Each structure stands twice: as structure tokens, then as C-alpha cells.
Amino acid sequence: MTSMSPGPVYESELTWLSTRELAARIAAGELSAREALADHLARVDSVDPAINAIVTRDDERAYERAARADAWYARGDRLGPLHGVPLTHKESTDTAGLRTTRGSPLLVDNVPTRDALIIARLRAAGVVTTGKSNVPEFTAGSHTFNPVFGTTVNPYDRTKSASGSSGGAAAAIAAGIQASGDGSDMGGSLRTPGSFNNIVGLRPSNGRIPHALPADPWTWLAQPGCLARTVADVALLMAAVCGPAVGAPLSIQEPGSVFERPEFSDPGRHEPGSGLAGLRVGFSTDLGGLIPVERVVSEVVDSVAGTFAAAGARVDDVLPDLTDADEVFRVDRALDFARDYREIVRNHRDRVKDAVVWNTELGLALTVDEILAAEEARVCLLASTEDFFSHHDLLVLTTSQVAPFDATLEYPGQIDGTPMRDYLEWMRAATIISATGCPAVSVPAGFTPGGLPVGVQLVAAPGRDVELLLAAQAFEELTGHHARRPAF
């Protein structure tokens, strides 16, 4: 774990701007892309030694990209919505010409030749790529540490975890390095870092940001998505990266422009919280008794029901039947691990962390009966959530069962006296929702008495991503928890 470098912390008038504000200044000619980049890198130099969020830098080529962006502006060329905005990307996501190690010593020299779809679309929107943010080894687990780059810690308390697997991105956003970024989420890897770092993390519906060839276009459990300090910035990135793609048969056919709503671009046009009035909300802190929740977390989340009710939502304790979700998640995750890592585990078992070996071998050992039973359970789960959303607009739940924990641990060993049997057990508040296929977003909900962030998880019916973000923004505006920054 690193400590803070000596000397003053760099902070400027740009540090806490939203991505929308930064892009608007560049588009208006008030700020050049090179000036924005210099400010971004100065902030990295200043605060990243304390948190270890940014693990690969590409300064020289970033300045070349920024110079090209300024030249486009000078010529009067049409600008993308993120023109000139500096951004690091999640380390495990393929970036052409920039190493992608997935936190494994086996891949330290891996340099992809093409961008993943989400990266290609961000660059097409004008983003200036500056580097990569840290992840757990092979993105396994919701705590960001690996033998290549070490541990990323939490900007709100640098003895605590920043979560994962998008933990480096979340910590960078919380620390003022950038206002938003890309990530991915299989078992909470956007939502739990959102909760731990007091930012917004959205896991979209399957097909919203499509899985496209040459990747597996049929996969569904892991989803690319976005993080930001505000819901409006998440919507801005979603507008840039969403939409159907060639070689992606499960694409949602709506374009990214469905996220270009006036409520996101001009939130002051309506009364804070008014978007919650009339919503039909099912609420539970412990998912109807399915999960243990740390008391300092439950105290924060419990209060959210009253916030929704006071804003005019109709809140009850009705939930879909989620009892099949654990089976669906664990079987499908194990199959995904077997598909992705079987050769690595077979050939390099002693150089891969135990959790990856265990989860991969779990997938390889599955029987046909177990796989078919999980598929049948998934049908039951879909039927249950479909029924719930026929008479509710939102499901409001805990994002993480624990507050940020000691960064020297691999994962919490127990929650409220309940032992955790493996590295997945403590993440069930998120993994259960992953199994439903519903879009879900974590929004800042408050802080523990010790000053650690706590998020609340909002869930909507598949395909209702825009409506989900509108409700999340209404809650954000009403509470203002996102405005509390870490101290450096």
C-alpha cells in the first residue's frame, strides 16, 4: 500500500468539474484539450501515489491525441460530445496499442491490437485516452489488488478497500482525477465500487452496450458500463457508448441518444426529487432476509425508504422471489470462468490466484444436470421479476452488505456475525441482482459514523435504463450525498 507523497496536493478550478462541464468548456473554446490534459495529469501526479488507482500511463501519446483534438477544433470540424476530455480506462478492457494485463503476471506484455467496443465508442466521441486504472487479478473479486500493480485504496480512508473490479476507476473518479469513466460488472463490479467511493455505478441491461464479435456475443452475465460522480455524467457516457452493433445479435436496437434527456443536461429545470413522486417502489435492506447486512450499512439504507416516501413515492416491502438467483449466478459465473480461464489454469495453475483457480474448476466440474437446473432457475427468476415490474417501477435495495473494509484483507470473513464461505458470499446484494438481468445503479446514500460511503441500489425492469437513471438522479438531487469529497 502506498502513502501520500510529500508536498501540496494539486487542485484547480477544473478538478471537480463534471464531464459535461469540462466538455462544454472545451467545445466553447474556453479551454484547450492540451490544457485539460495537463490538468488531469497534474492531478494524477499529486494524488495517485496515495491511492494507486492509475497503473499504466500513456502521457506522450495522450498529448499527441490532445494536439489533434485542438487542431480539429481550430479547423471547425464537427466535435464529439466528449471532445478533448481526458480519461483513463479499466485495465482489463482491451485498448489498442496500450497494455492490458488483467492484473496477471502472465499478461504483462499483452498489448491488444484493437479496442473493445466501449473504448472504440468513447474514442469516437472524442475522449483522449491517458492510461489504465487498476483491477483485481483477472477481475476476480470485489477488492482491487493484484501481483502486478498492488492494491488500490479508498480515497475516503486510505486504509480501506476501493472495492472492485472497477476499483481503480472508481477511486480515480472519487479522487478528482477524472469525473467519469468506463468499467464492467459481473457480480457488482460497477455498483460496489460506486458504493465504496461515493459515486454512481451503472450496470446496464444486456445489449445496451452490446457484446460484439470477436468477443462472445451471447454472453449476458458480465456487462460493460459507466461510473461517474453524478448521474448526469453517467447518462452522458451512456449516450456515447450505447446502441446496436454489427456482430452483436443481442443488441438493444435503441440508439444511445435515448439518454440525451433534458433532465440530465439541465437538472435545475425541475424541483429536486420531483422525479420520485408517484413511483411504485419495493424496498428492502436485506432482500427479504436473504442476506446479512453490516449494521452501519443497514442504518443508512433503512433511511432511504423514508426519503422516497417523503418525495411522493409509494413504498412497500414487496419483492420479487429471488431465491433462484444464487444458483443462476454461481453456475453462470463458473461457466464463464471455465470458458475464459481453463487453459490458463491448466497450464499455469501456480501463477494464478486461488479464487480464479477455484471458480474455473467449479465451472469445469459442472454436470449437465446442474447446468440445465440453473437454466430452469433463470426462467423462474425472469418470471418473478417480470411479475414484480408489472406493478412496480423500482426495486430499492442495499448495494454492498459491508462498508469499505480493511484493504489488507482479500474479502470480509464475516458480516454481522455470519461467516462468509468464499470470496463471492459477501457480494450477494449485487450478485443476486446480476442474475435477474435487470439494470441496476448504485447511488450515494450517506456515510457511516466513521465517514465511509454507503450506496443504495436502484433496480428497474430490463430495458428501462433511462427511467432508472432518471429516478437515480432525482434521489441524488434530493439528498446531495455525492457532493461530499474525500480529504487529501
Automatic annotation (TrEMBL):
Stated name of the protein: Amidase
Record-annotated Amidase domain positions: 36-469
TM ranges: none
InterPro entries: Amidase (IPR000120), Amidase_dom (IPR023631), AS_sf (IPR036928)
Native organism taxonomy: Bacteria, Bacillati, Actinomycetota, Actinomycetes, Jiangellales
Domain of life: Bacteria
Organism (species): Jiangella alba
Pfam families, A to Z: Amidase
A molecular function GO annotation: catalytic activity
